[in-house]
Amino acid sequence: MSQPSLSPTTPRLSADAPFNLARYCLDSGADAGKPALLVAEGPTGRIIESWSYGELRRAVAQVAGGFASLGLGKGERVLLRVGNTSTFPLLFFGAIAAGLAPIPTSTMLTSHEVDLILADSGALLVIGDGSCSMPTALPGGAVRVLRAADIARLCAGPAVDFADTAADDLAFLVYTSGTSGRPKGVAHAQRVVLGRIPMREGWYGMTASDRLFHAGAFNWTYTLGVGLMDPWALGATSIVHLGERPPEAWPDLLEATGATLMAAVPGLYRRILKYADVTPHRFPTLRHGLTAGEALKPTLHQEWLRASGRPLYEALGMSEISTYVSSSPTVPTKPGSPGKPQAGRRIAILPLDADGADAEQPLLFDATGVIAVHRSDPGLMLGYWGLPQETAAAMRGDWFVTGDVGHFDAGGYLWYDGRADDQMNAFGYRVAPEEVERAIVEHPAVSEAAVRETRAGEVSVITAFLVLQEGAEVSEAELDAHVASRLADYKRPRAWVFLKELPHTGSGKVMRRALLR
After folding, report:
1. For 282-321, how does the pLDDT look when each residue is reduced to its tens digit (9 = 90+)?
2. What's the pTM value of the predicted model, to 2 decimals?
3. Helices (H), 85-133
4. Rounded to an integer, what is the distance from CA 59 to the centroid of its chain?
5. Cys-Cys link to 323, which of 34, 300, 317, 459 (CB 3.0-4.6 A)?
């Protein structure tokens, strides 16, 4: 089952058509005095910053001017190592407005991980505000580093107009876990924001009058897309929160900010139910919640609906395409399914056998296969940075193969049946087992390691199975400290299992699926 064509509301641009993502988001036509961004703080949701559309446009234009004064060429990469403050989106959109390509990164990354991203991306500029780890190696000595004092001067640059970029020009890079054990850059074009249009009705049900409260940090692409790009492109108001947000405070936060929509991962809704006072009378302006990043359990949705009186609308997506299947106010939820393809998307189920004669032929409903997105979707990535062979391998004719396995039912709902590979989902982030295993086996006591996602009650965790060198001894605490120096917190194993040997195939490959706790 496949949607036949792109929606007429989704513009189609030629690769060289003039288009700038920042211009598109910030020139939505919203009144200059209307709030574009509200920044809240503390358990009571006190508003500490309020940016109007006029102020936001001027600030981004000044940051773009600051970038322009540095003399970087069009499309040069800028690595952002900046904490969760309003400076982050100014730098992100300002870089795009200047024709550069920012790389948003999690503050949880270690210096080792940042070094890998810097080397792979070829970024010539690193911006750090001192809140998180910085690279320890600057390749070739040509990389320039701007720190807190420099950021202030950058943001006070002379206002300039948006750069003359084209639809298929590089806009930004997002790094995910790579199957080689090293981070892999997903390159997105300026046009990627047009691929988000189907989400407005197909997931959000958002209008210009909405106030969307995103629970994530600015540096997460879920927040940059759902929390900033989309509300601003519609002329709506975005709300984010800085600092600690205990789950019991969320009803007060939603009430204090007048949020009409909320976006988070399922785990946060679970914690709010457990610790907060949730009733149909709380946060009266909220119409519904949005959730993505991990599967929404039907029981959690029912508990939230029963306690709050409001539905949750789920979406399925990935870094390479963002979300493309969802439920919404116009697509009723179906317990266990993330929903239907958003209007205008061309989504298909292809045979699992990539070498078969009919490998590019979409399957009928109820047939299980790999989920694929048509290459004509403007939201689809340009490719994997510096990896042309891997980019080509992800395509099957005119289809981008997601690696997710599923099937459509007769009503057009998609049912997710897992991954075709061994990739894991940890706290809403996609994690390749090879990256975690690579870090573990760097410990001298470890001979071999394999990791897989296992269940711990209601949540999924990464479990490491390892074989030690003969005669070696090592504690779990020592292993925890070892991987903590190499991997972000969300990538680290939460359990360790010591084995005499790992299961292997006849060709010697570790059989991760045979590992059970």
Report:
1. 999 999 999 998 788 888 899 999 999 999 999 999 999 9
2. 0.84
3. 87-97, 111-121
4. 25
5. 317
